[in-house]
Amino acid sequence: MEPFTTLTSRVVAIETTDIDTDQIIPARFLKTTTKIGLGKNLFADWRYEEDGTPKSDFVLNQPEVQGVQILIAGDNFGCGSSREHAPWALMDYGFQAIVSTSFADIFRNNSLKNGLLPVIVDEDTHQQIMSLAEEDPNLELSIDLASQTLTLPDGRQIEFPIDTFSKTCMLEGLDQLGYLQKQMDQILKFEESYGDRVNTLSPSSGDERRETRD
Amino acid sequence: MSKPRTLFEKIWDQHVVVDEPGNPAVLYIDLHLVHEVTSPQAFQGLRDKGLTVRRPDKTLATMDHSIPTTPLDVPIADAIAAAQIRKMEQNCREFGIRLFGMDSPNRGIVHVIGPEHGLTQPGMTIVCGDSHTSTHGAFGALAFGIGTSEVEHVLASQTLLQRKPKTFEIRVNGRLRPGVSSKDIILAVIAKNGVGGGTGYVFEYTGEAIRSLSMEERMTICNMSIEGGARAGMIAPDETTFAYIKGKPHAPQGQAWEEAVALWRTLPTDEGAVYDRVMELDANELTPMITYGTNPGMGMAINAEIPDPMRVTVSERPTLEKALTYMGLEGGKPLLGHKVDVVFLGSCTNSRISDLRLAAGLIEGKRVADGVRMMVVPGSQQVKKQAEQEGLDRIFRDAGADWREAGCSMCIAMNGDQLSPGEYAISTSNRNFEGRQGKGGRTFLASPLTAAASALTGRVTDVRTIME
Ligand code: SF4
Fold it and tell me: Which site from A144, A210, B91, B107 is most exposed, i.e. has the minimal number of CB atoms within 10 Å?
């Protein structure tokens, strides 16, 4: 994954709360076996008419939002399924950071593993940014991950939380699998004293027989 | 004596491999379930890094999401879905993973087959690239959904990086009344607590009402924990749990069985253990539930009125208004009697044999209302076989319902089974998100009993009014 250090961008706001991953990327686009190209179907059902033409009233179809890298969304963003296609789609579209009052667990985890930064702010800040963005379509926000701050146009800095482990991985563009591989000795040691619970490969009580069709 | 611990804490403690301060814990995984939609990119990741699957013996794959539910001898019409299925077969061959493939009589929805084969057992950690992995928590396992990067992590290391969640006891007192089922309990919990209310927590369901439920009913509840925002939902194992597992293909046998049960008996939450949060609910007061909106938290008693956007808080208003517009419903009006176009009986929430029996019991000898399309999709090929042995397929067919092969089907509408724009469905599945069951389709979530009752009348129906 690409390192994330700082970001300055205009913003797109979608006020709706509880935006679920079925809206972010509808299930019919999950038949792909790669991560690429999902951005064109980001928010597909909100974004396109039945015949595929862009809906003129949907915010992502406004000419002025093209190239914007920060999305501001309502509370509990990314709820629903565990599909990592959601952050893949958001990133493929061009978003680098999402600002909300809260994120669904799995979505947040998935985002952090892909270099998409979930920025959690309190409700007041959220509302302020929303109204600022409404007044000024050219509103720019700056994010500095190292200092965990979000800077508003008036210079006000807001701190946001992120755990140190995810932060380091994001700043350095590290794949978290690397950390697990470094623990392999410990994992092997753990397994030595740990009885196996189930063996999916073992043929047990007629399992095989049932697996061949009669 | 050591500090009293909850069921969750005991399982967590037993599976922590490394816990360095500041970093997430490395958690050992006992069972990794894999399906065709969220795994291809993970296998590709292994390939790119030159890695193998470390423990194929703790990994099981199936196909459920994008497979058709039409007769198996017909080739898959959707070329992209067919390619994804071929990819799964290829990945399992290449990495030595057991696959319950297209023509396996063991194939089914991933959360139905784990318990069916006795692979889901108390005290285990179970993950799958699927949020409804929470289902397996019904056995007193710690089971949760993960993303595709994490699927790759587990394939490569059999471990996962996890931050310890907090615990949330959901105590359900009393007993359910006739016509009210476990689906109604969980819909009521989510309606009360909201879709984000469980974020950061693991639910443990306790209380008399939970203890009196069968395993399949417990699975329905744990299944929807994720809809309340929780990663996992758990129920302490008891005699009901042991009886269900006993004799299943992968259940321990003989001496090993005795030892396993002895271990499982140590798992329930200790007297005096403290949860981070608690909520209580009285099962006696529950009625059948239904959702009116576009997330599972927008639920209410079936005979209640749809909330009026003018009467909710300002911050809730836009989302409710948007939902009602999408649903074509008006606040302040009842939902009872509203027309229904499609009835979907299926999904990992309610597609097990007991769900089918309940619905068939109500439908037997009657006809699905004119103009209503009812689709019955068993959760696995084994459930299907069992139902056919019991003659349930005949009951559904004679009533005019469609009897299908196993799979996720219209729960996620990836395989062509879907609503048309504007259609109303009563669905026994778990998500009523916009377009979830087909673009423009509108979903009312409810129990199998409510679904069956509404199939007979073609209207949203309170099952209690038609039960003898
Ligand atoms: S039945 Fe629905 S919720 Fe369950 S695994 Fe399949 S798609 Fe997911």
Answer: A144
C-alpha span between B356 and B393 (Å, rounded)? 9
What is the mean pLDDT of each successive set of 10 residues along chain A, which is 214 residues long?
95 94 96 95 96 94 94 96 97 98 96 97 94 91 98 94 96 94 96 89 56 37
Q: Is A23 helix (H, G, I), strand (E, B) or coil?
A: helix
Looking at residue B73, its pLDDT comes to 77
Closest CA to B237 of B273, B205, B198, B283: B205
- Rounded Cα distance between B330 and B307, Å, is 9
What is the distance in angstroms between the CA of the first residue and the CA of the last residue of chain B?
Answer: 54
Q: What is the ipTM metric for this complex?
A: 0.93
pTM here is: 0.96
**CA nearest B435: which of B333, B323, B349?**
B323
Question: In whole angstroms, what is the distance from residue B192 CA to residue B228 CA?
Answer: 10
Sign of the torsion angle spanned by Cα atoms B360, B363, B365, B367: negative
Three-state DSSP at A19 gives coil
Task: Name residues whose C-beta falls within 8 Å of residue A129's C-beta, 6 or more positions apart in sequence.
Answer: A11, A13, A72, A99, A121, A139, A141, A152
pLDDT tens readout for residues B106-159? 999 999 999 999 999 999 999 999 999 999 999 999 999 999 999 999 999 999
Task: Decide if pLDDT at B422 tops 50.
Answer: yes
Q: Is B327 within 8 Å of B292 (Cβ atoms)?
A: yes
For residue B119, the 8-state DSSP code is -
Estimate the crossing angle of helix A105-112 against helix B148-157, to 10 degrees. 70
Return the beta strands (E) in B147-227 as ranges: 159-162, 166-173, 201-206
How far is CA A71 from each of CA A134, A151, B225, B284, rounded to the nearest angstrom? 13, 15, 28, 45
Are B366 and B454 contacting, i.e. CB atoms less than 8 angstroms apart?
no
Mean model confidence pLDDT for chain B: 96
Report the distance separating Cα B61 and Cα B35, nearest Å. 6
pLDDT in tens, B260-273: 999 999 999 999 99
Rounded CA-CA distance B289/B345 in Å is 16
User: Which residues of chain B neighbour A76 with C-beta distances below 8 Å?
Assistant: 195-196, 199, 229
pLDDT band at B72 (very low <50, low <70, confident <90, very high): confident
DSSP state letter for B4: P
Closest by Cβ to B196, choosing from A102, A176, A186: A102
A61: three-class secondary structure by DSSP:
helix
Phi, psi of B369 (to 5 degrees): -55, 150
Q: Does A55 touch chain B (CB under 8 A)?
A: no
Among B35, B63, B107, B109, the mutation site with the greatest number of ligand 1 atoms within 8 A of its Cβ is B109
Neighboring chain A residues of B65 at a CB cutoff of 8 Å: 27, 30
Closest CA to A194 of B268, B242, B55: B55
Q: For strand B31-35 and strand B59-62, is the pairing parallel, antiparallel, or unpaired? A: parallel
Pocket test for ligand 1, best of B376, B377, B418, B429 (most atoms within 8 A of CB): B429
B365–chain A Cβ distance below 8 A for any pair: no
Nearest to B414 by CA among A26, A49, A33: A26
What is residue B142's three-state secondary structure? Answer: strand
